[in-house]
Write a structure and sequence with these properties.
The structure is a homodimer of 414-residue chains. With 414 residues, the first copy, chain A, is an alpha+beta fold. Chain A has two domains: 290 residues, Aminopeptidase, CATH 3.40.630; 114 residues, Alpha-Beta Plaits, CATH 3.30.70.360. Helix content of chain A is 36%, strand content 22%. Chain A contains eleven helices and 16 strands. Chains A and B meet through strand 8, helix 7, strand 9, strand 10 and strand 11 of A and strand 8, helix 8, strand 9, strand 10 and strand 11 of B.
Chain lengths: 414, 414
């Protein structure tokens, strides 16, 4: 087998990235396609039309996931699903999600053009939602397919303007029972191509990566309560300075994460002090804490040690400490066999590749606990994403499509 | 000499504190009297009326300082000036500034009642402005008397609503040359009574303090510039985390201040990160730094060591560091002879007293470089000030008035 991409594919990649990014384009040259918005619907319909032009038979499910099906000859075969998500963050980039959708359509249609009907059925999918940018519910698309979410999980939600989730869904034509029920039991595996959103591949001069694990994420809000007081008239030993305590905690946890040297990352990106005035000791201080690693044991040990130290600092500084955990996403292992297959094929092709961990969340983590799943990365220039500046070179995008074609060929045609 | 306060004085203190605090009262039961506002003018006119009732001859100067004069028999004598400021912060307390004005009126008028005309002229003063809460110009009242400020220093200023300083001054009737020029060369000394705004006196069970020095204050804005990046996909060793660098600096400087144990205080009360999002490494971070001590050498050494360490942290964390100093107020020594006199008189009277440093700024620091100056404190309950919760017991206020009477008697009558 010698699956090749063609100059035509390269041209199509550029054209489709441009076309899709024009739907929901912002004044900053970014893209905003929030779930069930007019731009979101326009994008799904544009993908549908393109899938049909490519000879795929399309259908929506009742939450708005869009499928382009290439029926296999083995009628009893389960479905090989490949794709990513169509929604974006506010003022996001052209590639996050969208490239995985484009890659799946192109791979399936070009396999069909070159090799005809596969033995096993393949479906390209444009998942309705991953980012959680409009409603506070990430992975709605993949979650609805895999049974992680049901309609009732969205029943109480509203967006920041107060529009109820169900109303927005209905106004887009979904959620009324007019389409297939989203939950599936006929999927054999899921393959997702995505931009890395980090700069490891670019720094190492690699074009492609097979992801072995998606990290677990624990997110916390840390609140410290001390005593506001006059910066001039309060001696140092009378103080209950919440910002001083917070600073010691932040310095500690980031330092400890650096010392791990096992891929663990810890980030404090948000801080707020009150009253936040230069000549008043901060009575209250609150900061975010985001800790990620691909092994549950490592996360457990790190968090335990961190919070023991936080408690000691709080006691020493006479401030009260409240920890609120609001996310606990377990690490997910991608299918080792699919990962290995990908790397073997990349090796045969002479593509500079890497096996790596994903530090960001993806639909693949929802599929990964449901069916064998492969997540594959192409480089992100400078690691920038969720920004209009998101960029990946066309030659790297082409490698992503070609690798997907090769893996799909092996799974569906051999 | 046996200067006594009387039950009548105690009653008058309470009545005058209540009366003055009703002018500019806020819904939180605080007081807002911003320079040249209607409440400010009403308060000055109420003080003027009260001074006249007490037999003092009153006059304004052209910036709105109000004087109540008790002419001495020695016609050539220079003026003993005593008072404090009438303006407040937004939603401030009943005592900050106002009590010093009240104490000066009561002391001068009761000395006159008890001992008649003094040898040397005394003036009680209600200074127009100290806080800098409306226009960014503190000590306008004392600064205008001592020549620190002239009209041109206010020419370009406007308040947060865009009202020019000069317009506000004119609308109150001042700044048009209708009153005496503010700058004076006939003042022999200045005496100010003020609430401590700290809790040292209360904790130590003292009723009164003679202040030996007002601290020098250095205030900075520290800006750190690193690189915003994804919290999941950016390995720890690729990061330029400005909030991590800031945390190390804050932890360092506050720890170093605690270790000084010489009265130095260092405060970081304000912090801002950008983009200030939990799952994004903070590219930019800015924090305030407020350092105070009563000896210039100590300030110099501490600041030098602090900023050397800040530079090392910035280099280590790969962030750029900008230090902007926006206040450099030198320490001011109160007159040692006046301070000693005060303490001797307190000792004779059996008043539990203390000699202490003022960590807050006061009009006395402006007078202190111009003429012999004494600053005296009464306790602040829990150290709370600039708040509707500001409170001092009447018996402590009475000590403040009595001590002022005793010192004035010594200076003006003996």
């Amino acid at each position: 087998m010698d699956v090749k991409s063609t100059p035509a594919i390269t041209e199509e990649i550029d054209r489709m990235v441009e076309k899709l990014s024009a739907i929901g384009r912002t004044k900053n040259n970014g893209v905003t396609r929030l779930l069930y918005s007019p731009a979101w619907l326009e994008a799904q319909l544009a993908v549908k039309e393109r899938m049909e032009d490519m000879g795929l038979s399309t259908y929506f499910d009742d939450v708005g996931n869009l499928f382009g099906r290439l029926e296999g000859t083995e009628k009893s075969s389960r479905v090989i699903l490949t794709g990513s998500h169509i929604d974006t963050v506010v003022d996001g980039g052209k590639f996050d999600g969208a490239f995985g959708v484009i890659a799946s359509m192109l791979a399936v249609s070009h396999l069909f053009q070159q090799y005809g009907t596969p033995r096993r059925t393949i479906e390209a999918v444009s998942l309705c939602e991953e980012e959680g940018s409009r409603f506070n519910l990430s992975f709605w698309g993949s979650g609805s397919i895999t049974g992680k979410y049901r309609m009732k999980d969205a029943a109480e939600l509203a967006d920041s303007k107060g529009v109820p989730f169900v109303q927005a869904m209905n106004e887009s034509g979904f959620g009324k029972g007019d389409y297939a029920q989203p939950e599936r039991d006929d999927i054999s595996c899921f393959l997702e191509t995505h931009i890395e959103q980090g700069e490891i591949l670019e720094r190492e001069g690699k074009s492609w990566a097979a992801v072995s694990h998606i990290v677990g994420q624990r997110r916390y809000t840390v609140h410290l309560s001390g005593e506001s007081n006059h910066a001039g008239t309060t001696p140092m030993n009378f103080r209950k300075d919440s910002l001083y305590a917070a600073s010691q905690m932040i310095a500690h946890v980031v330092h400890a994460a650096k010392n791990q040297q096992n891929g663990l990352v810890a980030t404090v990106g948000k801080i707020e002090a009150d009253p936040n005035v230069g000549n008043v000791i901060a009575g209250e201080c609150q900061f975010s804490l985001d800790i990620r690693h691909h092994e549950e044991d490592v996360l457990n040990k790190f968090c335990e040690e961190t919070f023991r130290e936080f408690k000691e600092i709080a006691e020493k500084e006479n401030v009260s400490l409240q920890l609120r955990q609001w996310m606990d996403a377990a690490p997910v292992r991608m299918d080792p066999q699919l990962t290995r297959t990908g790397m073997e094929l990349a090796g045969e092709e002479g593509i500079p590749f890497k096996k790596m961990i994903s530090g960001a969340g993806h639909d693949s983590q929802v599929f990964g606990v449901y069916c064998p799943t492969a997540l594959m990365f192409v480089p992100s220039h400078k690691g920038i994403s969720h920004s209009p500046k998101e960029f990946t070179r066309t030659e790297d995008l082409e490698v992503g499509v070609r690798m997907l074609m090769k893996i799909l060929y092996k799974l569906a045609y051999c």
